[in-house]
Design brief:
single chain, alpha+beta, 5-stranded antiparallel sheet, 1 helix, globular
Length: 81
Amino acid sequence: MTLRLQPVQVGTGSSDMESQLVYSEGLLVAVLVRLSDDHDDRSGMWFLEAGFGRVDHPDPPTFADLDAAQDWIAQRLAGTS
């Protein structure tokens, strides 16, 4: 499975604006937001701002980096997590 990332700025209402749209097979499956310095020990990590379909989650996770986020998304799409 190939995921495609598209960098965007998201109006979150906070300083967390650096974001990535995540596409799978041409469909938007997630929006990831990079946490700003306002988040102290989580600064620089990536948060699942929105997930669609199998990527939707009631307790959105935070990831150390984009690779970890993509791995988790791929697992959700494959139905293995």
